[in-house]
Amino acid sequence: MPHQTALDWIDSNFNLLHETSQTLWHNPEPSLKEVKAAAHLADLLQHHGFDVQRGVAGMPTAFVASYSRGTGPVVAYLGEYDALPELSQAAVPERSPIEPGGYGHGCGHNLLGTGALGAALATKAALEAGKASGTVRFYGCPAEEILVGKVFMVRDGLFADCDLAITWHPAATNQISADQNLAMNSARFNFHGVSAHAAVSPEAGRSALDAVELMNVGVNYLREHVTSQARIHYVITDGGLQPNVVPSFSQVWYYVRAPHRHEVEEIYGRVLEIAKGAALMAGVTHDVEFVAGCYDTLRLETLLEVSQANLERVGGPSFDEQERAFARQLANTHPPGTHERIVKRAGLTLLDGEFLSEEILPDTGLRGVSSGSTDVGDVSWNVPTAEIRTACWPVGNAGHSWQNTAAAGTTIGTKGMVVAAKAMALTGLDALVDPDLVVQARKEFQARTAATPYVCPIPAHVNPEV
Predict the structure, then answer these.
(1) Looking at residue 182, what DSSP letter applies?
(2) What's the pLDDT tens digit per position in 7-53?
(3) Rounded-to-integer distance, Cα 107 and Cα 81, Å
(4) Strand order in the sheet with 175-176
(5) Mean pLDDT (whole number) for 307-323
(6) What is the tally of helices (H) and strands (E) in the chain?
(7) Residue 445: strand, helix, or coil
(8) Are 223 and 232 in contact (CB under 8 A)?
(9) What is the C-alpha separation between 206 and 276, in angstroms, rounded?
(10) What DSSP string runs through 38-66?
């Protein structure tokens, strides 16, 4: 059976996958600058017989690798590999930055990219053995943390001929990704004023920072009048240089999120009007840099069912006492009550003093909304997409935390990653050997998208900020 061939390949190449994730972990890179990570993954795929197209969609660190044998479906695995600022951390259970203020894999993308690579190589092994036919692809997707990589790749038509896309994300639990992620817009608002001596001639100045602060006040009042599942957040990226000079330039960067694309567009339109009002009140001018936009994730029952079955077939990771002790030490850094709250909410059966989950959670049938966003959403509105989560760090770790960076650099992360690689490979091979699965997924996809066809949220004139 092709499925066993894939599972055997992953078991035989555990060290390769661990070393690959370690290479990425030790070389964390920011979005759109993942030069070492992209090259390392692309080189590995090329070495294993994939045809690799590098620098696609206007991004030097984006690539597509393909292997075909005969005719059949095109199955895509999505890999990510960018890191996050201020999350540099050694693989130890107390705060210890390797580079103060530096980047770190606090979202586990060293594992995500490597796990998808493992699934692609395992699927290729089954194809090469003549036990299935079709095409396996690995999409090297940069800049997920700023939600642009896959959107530009979709806009350039790189997924146009795919039949199925499969991905995963490191987490604290082993389960299908059934919740819907939020759609999002990202934009920078630039305000231009007139500088002057803030004490001697303030009347001659027009403060760009005043406009930023007025805009933020207006948006904060807006929060009361948007759907409760919407999220609006910002950082002031430039507020002037010193207090005795009226700032002639100031910038604020906003994310606007909501469960559906049309809701984001409505709220974002109101934010644009608030920016105009702030500029008028401060007596300055302004312009808007649209950075990124992404869709919510479209979950298909057909693929949720298959993903659940394959997770159960693989089973959860098995952690040893050294890994459990490391997790207990990390858990000591969590706020009081975190563990108990999450265990109850997730329905876990962890014993007291245990923080690593080995169980595969059942599909409860609940389809909620997650407060995060991902550019996987744009792929899912163009290709039927499956996604799972596996336990790569302790229950209670916060998202985008130094604790996640620490765990992602250990065998805790690797073991969860291997479970993901196996479950994804099985799902991809299901599509390659069972044409009915592809047909059923496509029919459900078409029914769900017929009334609201995809429109790329990034305008044609906006290009990657490489």
Answers:
(1) P
(2) 999 999 999 999 999 999 999 999 999 999 999 999 999 999 999 99
(3) 10
(4) 51-54, 63-69, 134-141, 74-80, 164-171, 385-391, 175-176
(5) 98
(6) 14, 11
(7) helix
(8) yes
(9) 15
(10) HHHHHHHHHHTT-EEEESGGG-TT-EEEE
Q: Give the tens place of pLDDT for each residue, 66-77.
A: 999 999 999 999
Return the residue matching tokens 């430039």: 238
Mean pLDDT, the chain, integer: 95
**Pair type for strands 134-141 and 183-192:** unpaired
Tell me how far apart the alpha carbons of residues 294 and 315 are, in angstroms, rounded to a whole number: 33
Name the token pair of 187: 């934009």
Q: Tokens 């009226």 label which residue?
A: 246
Query: Mean pLDDT throughout 176-202?
Result: 96
pLDDT, position 351:
61
User: Letter for the amino acid at 368?
Assistant: G
Q: Kindly tell me if the per-residue pLDDT of 339 is higher than 70.
A: no
What gap in Å lies between CA 360 and CA 344, rounded to an integer? 16
* Contacts with 39 (C-beta within 8 Å, 6 or more apart), sequence order: none
For residue 338, the tally of other CB atoms under 10 A from its CB is 16
Q: Which amino acid is at 221?
A: Y
The span from the CA of 28 to the CA of 101, in Å, is: 12
pLDDT of residue 314: 98
pTM reported for the whole predicted model = 0.94
Provide the 10 A C-beta neighbour count for residue 203: 7
The number of residues in the chain equals 466
